[in-house]
Amino acid sequence: MPASPSSSAQAAREAVAHRLRDLRKGAGLTVVQLAAACGWHYSKTSRIENALTGPSANDIRRWCTATHADDQAQDLIVQSINAESMYRQWRDQVRAGLRHLQESRAQAFRATECFRLYSSSLVPGLLQTEGYARAVLGIAASVNDLPVDDSVEAARARVERSHVIQEPGHRFVVVIEEPVLHCHVADPESMAAQLGYLLTAGALPAVSLGVIPMAARRTHWPEETFHIYDERLVCVELVSAEVNVSQPGEIAQYLTTFERLRSMAVYGADARALILKAIEALP
Predict the structure, then answer these.
(1) Of 176, 206, 212, 173, nearest in space to 194 by CA
(2) Is the pLDDT of residue 130 over 90?
(3) Pick from 119, 157, 151: which is nearest to 237 by CA?
């Protein structure tokens, strides 16, 4: 099982904190002395060293100047930026609106050749119909208490972004848990349209759609929803944030986990039978 994504993000922040602490100790400075040299309260030094607060670029420059390690400042700034970008709270991401969030990812999607998508909760965004996406994003707007609900516009942008499925040069390996088919986040009509589209999308040459049956003998437990873009990035969806994993060793763990999950799924006629069963069960 991959390490907890939130733990990975915290570990990256702690690595920066440890380097800064080593610089302070190497310079023979106490926490109070370092704080005085940097012009802030000593409690800030303690928070940074204990990885409770991520340092800004200016904080790192002051720290390095105080410890006579200016030559390490730029490397530490890059390491800190990478650590902080791993863990991005949903509230921060949707600050500019749900539509902006959808549109901001379009270019990255077009640059990806192989998408590996695993979901234990919802139909992945790339396979969502507009009605289903509108319902999902409407819930997101409510959960994040957005001042402006632009879920209708965001749903259109999400569907527009998903046209990458029709473009040459991309492959999509999708694995979903069977309960996804029975999670009624939209009205019956929209759910029927969504499930019907899964039948269509699953037949596309570039798409491999697998469903892990509820009755399957598990060789791996359900995981948090995660998407792998080529072999360069993994995005993991948590309740409070999206975690971006770019370390090769961790990506390899997610690739292994994805293959274990994929091996439990059914495909072709068997997958279509589960989708049809979900359609028949709609109210």
Answers:
(1) 176
(2) yes
(3) 119
- What does the alpha-carbon distance between residue 93 and residue 241 come to, in Å, rounded to a whole number? 9
Quote the CA–CA distance of 54 and 4 in Å, as a whole number: 20
* Mean pLDDT, the chain, integer: 89
The structural domains of the chain, ordered by start, are 7-84 (1.10.260.40), 112-281 (3.30.870)
- The predicted-structure confidence for 147-190, as pLDDT tens digits, reads as follows 778 889 988 989 998 999 999 999 999 999 999 999 999 999 99
Distance CA 86, CA 248 (A): 14
Nearest to 248 by CA among 231, 263, 271: 231
Q: Which residues contact 15 (CB under 8 A, 6 or more apart)?
A: 79, 83
Please, which contacts does 137-141 make with residues 24 or more away whose CB atoms are closer than 8 Å? 137/98, 139/185, 140/90, 140/94, 140/98, 141/94, 141/98
pLDDT of residue 98: 58
CA distance to 36, 103, 112, 116, per residue, from 271 (Å) = 64, 31, 26, 17
CB 207, CB 150: distance < 8 Å = no
Phi, psi of 197 (to 5 degrees): -70, -30
Q: What is the pLDDT of residue 110?
A: 84
pTM to 2 decimal places: 0.73
Q: Which of 67-81, 132-146, 240-254, 257-271 has the highest mean pLDDT?
A: 257-271
* CA atoms of 257 and 250, how far apart (whole Å): 11
Close Cβ partners of 92 (under 8 Å, ≥ 6 residues apart):
none
Q: Which amino acid is at 130?
A: E
SS in 3 state form for 92-127? HHCCCCHHHHHHHCHHHHHCCCEEEEEECCCCCHHH
